[in-house]
Amino acid sequence: ADxxxxxxxxxxxxxxxxxxxxxxxxxSGQQKIIYVEKDSVAxxxxxxxxxxxxxxxxxxxxxxxxxxxxxxxxxxxxxxxxVVERDGEQREIIAHFRRVLx
Length: 102
What we know:
With 102 residues, the chain is of the alpha+beta class. The chain contains 2 helices and 6 strands; from the N terminus they run E-E-H-E-E-H-E-E.
């Protein structure tokens, strides 16, 4: 889980998070983004609700656990190249895991 009810989010977490929630798409079975967290790595990269995740780091994504494994290997300062489908077209999106200071 990206959050726990009743606790404030960490201001400076040790490990980065992409900041999305997904659900298997009914047609393709691939992971469809159903929520993009405000001010997250995903939002800054341009991911949008409704995007379907096709691949990350060149690996075709068939299960959410694959994306979890790929993101969990990231450190602050790393990047992640993803392929998403939006409006019937595939797009490459690069997410940069950078801390944003207030």
